[in-house]
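thread: overnight batch results

M.L. [08:02]
morning all. the overnight job finished for the chain we discussed friday. pasting input first so we're all looking at the same thing
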Amino acid sequence: STGEVPVQRLWYLGGVHTIRGQPIAAARGDAFWLGRADLGFGAAGLRPGVFYDLGWAGERADWRTPGRPLSGAGVGVSFLDGLIRLDVAKGLRPSRGWRTDLTLEARF
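M.L. [08:03]
and the structure it wrote out:
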């Protein structure tokens, strides 16, 4: 993004699709970076796994010195090759709470 960005065009991090274990919109800004690692075991029908997420969102001018990024880690299980997923995540930074998320990844 460049220039002045309206609120609806900001990047929002936190929640099941970005940093699991963090509340939705725990960080927001006109610039972001995000890294996710998932390691699954077993067959496509039922696949347990572990994950770690790390990211930052904030002002574009601060992206080289972001401070401490958001992070979360946990375990999950995927059913039917990711169609249904259950994650139990622990926020590591800044929120240290627990979150359990059940998601349906169907494309209609």
